[in-house]
Amino acid sequence: MSNHSVQTVSTSNDKYKVILAGAAVVSGIAAFYILAGQSTWVRVVALLAGLVVAVGLLAISEVGRNFFDFAKESVRETKKVVWPTRKEAGQITAVVFGFVLVMAIFLWGTDKFLEFLLYDVILGWKK
Question: Three-state DSSP class for 104?
Answer without folding.
Answer: helix
